[in-house]
Structure formats: structure tokens, C-alpha cells
Write a structure and sequence with these properties.
alpha+beta; 4 domains; 14 strands; about 40% helix; 14 helices; five-stranded mixed beta sheet; three-stranded antiparallel beta sheet; about 15% strand; flat; about 450 residues
Length: about 450
Amino acid sequence: MEEAKKNQNTSLRDELDPVIDVTNESNEPANDVDNVDEHAKNKGGQSKRSFVWDHFKKVEGRNGKVKCDYCVLIMAGGSKENGTSAMSYHLKNVCRRFPLYKKEGMKKQAMLNFKPTTKRQSRGTLASHHFHQEKARKFLARMCIKDNRPFSIIDDEEFREFVWEINPMLKIPSRWTIAKDCLSIHEEEQNNLKKLLKNQIVSLTTDTWTSVQKFNYKCRTTHWVDDNWMLNKRILNFCQIPNHKGVTIGKYVYRCLQEWGIDRVFTITVDNASSNDGAIKYLRYMLKGSRSILDSKYLHLRCCAHIINLVVRDGLDEQFSTITKIRNAVKYVRSSPSRYDNFKECIKYEKIDCKSKPCLDVETRWNSTFLMLETAEKYSKAFNRLQEIDINYSSYFYNEGDDDDGKKIITRKGNNSNKNDRVLGALEDEDWEKASFQ
């Protein structure tokens, strides 16, 4: 009798106050917070959409009152006036005996979808997704960095409408917040790169040039092989320098190495400028020590591409006159819209089917000269016809003047006196034959 009475009391206590092992997630109820699609039915057969009805019961005789299955708290809920919001809040944030009390990641159901593809991926990957305000703001800042977007893009009306249509929960920050986030991302990536470069043997590539605004700039790139035998490349620094002197270049490179904590340099690749010899001499002295690689004996490495460019330039001097005439002809048709319109009329008349436009070469890139000659040769008939219909085309290549004795002389247009002044006259058939690659 006593044992039966004890079992009866235990069953009654478990019914009023059920015991759940919170530490064991496998013992959680079958219907938790995420199972919002399952419906609990009451005695009348009416469907309940909210998950809270798996953990609450209506109090008989008291309209609009419900009782929690875990803490036996009676509260208002379930009616049209009160709804189920208070019941949901009670389970997630108040009831300590609820298995999922204040458990992050279980309060909302994740969405399963394909992530967008990247350059290294052939197709998207399937992954779950939770919306996070801070994470979305960080990706917005990364978009501005990677795509060179201005911070003012977040103030655009169309952009805000687009974001609202995708997810109205995203609170768009101000441009100042995005700017701070970009600085934070820069510091984070900088610290990550410093960890990667720690105790690594690296090789540097550096170059110095002067812009059209007469400012001197310098860029430094590092290369290294990681533990997985993968070649990596990162730009360490891009800055303005006062001059092209060797000591100045060496000091700026060494300062950059100190900022990144790099003390093991194998080679430094530079072009054949004489100032770089002084820079390498300075760096070889500063990098000597127990951490130097082979006592910095092979530190100086000359740029192979720059050497090839110098060799090709010397070879192109044999056809200097023809190349200069073609370059001047391309300059003429590209100098104004009206001239280019006349040139297009000549192309149409000669029925030339070519989609590429005439392009100019760059002095430091020998392959650009090849592209200029290759494209211009396709339009040779159009250039010859332009010489016949445009009176300004021939006069663009030379003009006449008087010398001190009153004799007529022909001089090249331009204020600078250089070897370009020796090239006179427009293009002839002989020039096109030299430029032909057949």
C-alpha cells in the first residue's frame, strides 16, 4: 500500500511539474521552437499554428488564461486580444526550465539555399542562413571596398528600396558607419596578413614611376610559398615618394618591411634604372644579419620583362619612321569626334569589317606597339582615303616655315626637338608594307 501510494504521488508530481534534462539535447521534446510547421490540435479539433501550444495548456473555467507546462505559471494568452507573443517570450526568455531557454540559434529557423558562386567555384554550395544585422553591415562595407563603390551609395533611394525589397529587417547604416567598418576590415585583414607573413621567406617586387601630374609613386608586392606549397601574392604598400634617388627608395622599402614584420627577404625584383642599384646596396646593408638569406648575396634580381622590353625597343628603332607615322595617324583620328566621324565614313566606304578601334601604344609596353600596328594595318585603306578627303590630315604631319635666309623648310609639328622631328609626311604604301605581318 505504501509503495503504491508513493508511485501515485510521484506520477501526480511529474504531471504537474515535469522534469527535463536540459543538458542533453537529445532528450528535448519532439516539437521545439524550430518546428513551427507542425500543428497541435486541441480537444475541439481546431488547428494551432504556433509552437507554443506544445508547451502551454488552456486553464479550464478561465477564459483567455493558459498554464506553462514547465513552471506552472498561469498567464493571459491564446485569445484574440492577447495572442501568443507573450507565451513565446515567456518560453524563450523567462522560463528557466524550458529546454531552449535563451539558447541562441534555436530561436529562429534557418533558411536552406545556395550560396552565390565565386571566381574559384564552378557552382554554388548549399548552406543554411540566419539573418544577422552586424554580419550584413560588414558585408555591405566589403562590397564598397571590393567594387570601389562610394560610401554615398547607401544614401541612394533606389539602393534603399532594393535592400528593403530583399529584407526589410536590415537597418541601413550611415556613410560614416560604413567608413569606420571599412577601416576595421582593413585592420583585421592587415593583422591576418601579418600572421601569414610571420617567419616566412618572401620575395619582393617594387617599381617607381612618375604620373602625368608629376607625382612620384611607388608600389611594393610580396610573393611567398605557404605551407601547402601554394604561391601567394599581396600588395604591401602603395605610397608617394619625394624622388627617385636610390637611398630614398631603399629607405621606403626598408620602412615597409619593418611595418609588416618582415626580416627574411630572398630577392627584390627591380627594373634596370641606375637608382635601383643604390637602393639594393642600401637594403643589402640593412638586411644583413643572422636572419638574412645567403647573406643577401642574391638579393638583387633584375626584371626580365623590363629587359625584354628594352631589347624590343632597340629592334623597333629600325622601323622608327614607319611606326612614328602610324602613331601620328592614330593620334589624328582619335584627337576629336569630328575627325573620328570622317574616319568612320572612310571605313564604311571601304567596307572594312573590323570591330576593334585604332589604339595607341605605351612606351613601357612593347606588346602595345604590336597591337597598334596590327589594328592600324587593318584600316590602311581607310587611312589612305582619309588623306584624300580631309585636307587637314596631311598638314597634321608637317608644316612649312622660313629660315633665316628666307628659304622654305619643313619641320615636324611640336615644341620639343627630338628624333620625332625627323619623321615627315603622311603614310605611304611603303610604310604599310613594312607594318604588314604577312
